[in-house]
Specification:
This protein is an alpha+beta fold. It is built from two helices and five strands; from the N terminus they run βββααββ.
């Protein structure tokens, strides 16, 4: 039996001293949540919000994570928008808000 290795894949992003904007195009976790249906995706969404937000805040308390899109809500990619407000400068891209339609 051949095994497949599922890995996270990212599109090119933006990285400055005060922010990181990058899209995750392939996520093994979202794939597995999706295999169990919409209720499992709801749990995956809770996991995504709690785990990612906590991860970045533990790295530095000034960090803020926002999703412009998120696979566990049915979007084709996760659009991570991480910022450190104390380090952003004029001209850094702004968070455009969640682009999905189920809020």
């Amino acid at each position: 039996m051949a095994s497949s290795c599922r890995l996270w894949q990212f599109a090119p992003g933006i990285l400055t001293e005060g922010l990181w904007h990058q899209d995750c195009t392939a996520c093994p976790y979202a794939d597995v949540w999706g295999e169990f249906g919409s209720r499992a995706l709801d749990l995956g969404y809770l996991y995504d919000n709690e785990m990612h937000s906590t991860y970045f805040r533990e790295y530095h308390p000034d960090m803020v994570l926002q999703f412009a899109a998120i696979k566990t809500r049915g979007d084709p990619v996760c659009r991570f928008r991480v910022s450190m407000p104390s380090r952003t400068v004029p001209g850094d891209p702004q968070f455009e808000g969640y682009s999905g339609g189920d809020i």
